[in-house]
């Protein structure tokens, strides 16, 4: 039966969040997206940081059509397929040295699940069955499935499901800009990394399997970037205790940060990487896990990776991913993300001068976030009931700009937003985004 809302909105058999009744989408092109009434929006968050190469890319669409004419599905236990093989080869060429073994899935949560299961099976295959704990950061976001949720640091999302989850050890995310002490940023970076060492020692190093982190924060920490010293120290600690380092690059990967992976900005080579969002760029549901042969081989020798989903390595999704990667290279989109990201960052720092309630602006490339507080001196949060993030979303939306904004319960203690347009964005479009954002912040003030 169809639910008939009292406010005259169109009926629907779908359900999401109560507040999420939005117009029906019609079409999209580049950084723009239209609803069915003909209204145009700037997609200033690439959906949820997904459409990295922009909407409506004809080369990708044509490549997908060609693949659809050949074969759209072949079960991976019956056939291998060329798009998956070629995507694995080309992705490996974009990855840091050594991360050359790929496993394809259909999204970010599945990619994170794959990383956890690979790590665990590697431990079992190498005679370390006592290692199972995956240390994670709080706050953080790693996905909505039960396994990925068990390493997600977001009370509101986890609360109802706690009885179903195995509690995993946490360390604070390095929100160093909030610290009021006499340490330099680099000293703070080391101190936050050292909290991982303390946690590993508390847990018993022989029980700790992995540490998972977003090199550049996403949904829970609005593009949080740690001081440089953090990253190398984390690697050092993981090495010292034989703990695997998993980088969740679902949001920060695929060129968005101005490098192929967010983690490429630092001297910190992960053991396993989860990717999704930008590698399919919204053209197909695609996720990937990358790992080194050192990890993969013991598992294969022990009989293979005991994990998979029906759509893993789907030829159509992989053909889309291959074309997306080709377009990213052909159009030099990673360089553009770096250049436009610098411009956007410069303009947001100017906005911050106009609106003192913007307490911090950070990020890399076209993944830029900001935090809003009631008092920039004391960092007192805006009252939760005032929902600054929602009002900002609404003001921007009313002016034809889509951004991403949230408040994380038990997390950063405040309202934050992310600006992350597609990597095809031009300088003029950056100016337009910032101008509308400025008007929206003005309306909020
Ligand atoms: N990991 C990170 C860092 C993410 O940002 C997300 C989604 O926002 C996920 C995992 C989960 O991805 P998906 O929603 O595709 O399952």
TrEMBL record:
Cofactors that this protein relies on: pyridoxal 5'-phosphate
This protein's UniProt keywords: Amino-acid biosynthesis, Aminotransferase, Arginine biosynthesis, Pyridoxal phosphate, Transferase
GO molecular function per UniProt: pyridoxal phosphate binding; transaminase activity
Gene3D superfamilies in UniProt: Aspartate Aminotransferase, domain 1, Type I PLP-dependent aspartate aminotransferase-like (Major domain)
GO biological process: L-arginine biosynthetic process
Family: Belongs to the class-III pyridoxal-phosphate-dependent aminotransferase family.
Protein name: Aspartate aminotransferase family protein
Organism: Aquibium oceanicum
């Amino acid at each position: 039966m169809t639910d008939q809302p009292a406010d005259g909105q169109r009926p629907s058999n779908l359900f999401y969040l109560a507040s999420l009744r939005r117009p029906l989408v019609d079409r999209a092109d580049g950084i723009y997206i239209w609803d069915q009434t003909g209204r145009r929006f700037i997609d200033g968050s690439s959906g949820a940081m997904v459409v990295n190469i922009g909407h409506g890319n004809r080369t990708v669409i044509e490549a997908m059509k060609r693949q659809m004419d050949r074969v759209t599905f072949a079960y991976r236990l019956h056939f291998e397929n060329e798009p998956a093989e070629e995507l694995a080869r080309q992705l490996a060429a974009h990855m840091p040295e050594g991360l050359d073994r790929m496993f394809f899935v259909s999204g970010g949560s599945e990619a994170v699940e794959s990383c956890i299961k690979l790590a665990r099976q590697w431990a079992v295959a190498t005679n370390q069955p006592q290692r199972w704990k995956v240390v994670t950061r709080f706050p953080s976001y790693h996905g909505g499935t039960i396994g990925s949720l068990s390493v997600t640091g977001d009370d509101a999302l986890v609360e109802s499901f706690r009885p179903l989850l195995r509690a995993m050890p946490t360390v604070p995310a390095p929100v160093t800009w909030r610290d009021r002490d006499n340490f330099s940023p680099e000293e703070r970076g080391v101190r936050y990394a050292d909290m991982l060492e303390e946690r590993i020692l508390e847990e018993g190093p022989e029980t700790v399997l992995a540490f998972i982190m977003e090199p550049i924060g996403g949904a829970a920490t609005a593009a949080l970037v740690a001081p440089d010293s953090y990253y190398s120290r984390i690697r050092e600690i993981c090495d010292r205790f034989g703990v695997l380092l998993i980088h969740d690059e679902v949001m920060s990967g695929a060129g968005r940060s101005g490098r192929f992976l967010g983690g490429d900005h630092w001297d910190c080579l992960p053991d396993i990487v989860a990717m999704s969002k930008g590698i399919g760029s919204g053209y197909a549901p695609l996720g990937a896990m990358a790992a080194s042969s050192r990890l993969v081989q013991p598992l294969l020798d022990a009989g293979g990776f005991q994990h998979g989903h029906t759509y893993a390595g789907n030829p159509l999704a992989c053909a889309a991913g291959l074309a997306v990667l080709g377009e990213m290279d052909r159009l030099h989109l990673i360089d553009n993300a770096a250049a436009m990201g610098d411009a956007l960052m410069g303009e947001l720092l100017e906005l911050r001068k106009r609106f003192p309630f913007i307490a911090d602006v950070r990020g890399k490339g076209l993944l830029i976030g900001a935090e809003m507080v009631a008092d920039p001196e004391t960092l007192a949060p805006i009252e939760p009931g005032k929902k600054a993030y929602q009002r900002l979303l609404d003001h921007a939306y009313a002016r034809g700009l889509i951004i991403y904004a949230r408040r994380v319960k038990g997390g950063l203690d405040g309202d934050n937003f992310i600006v992350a347009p597609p990597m095809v964005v031009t300088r003029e479009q950056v100016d337009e985004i910032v101008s509308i954002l400025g008007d929206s912040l003005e309306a909020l003030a």
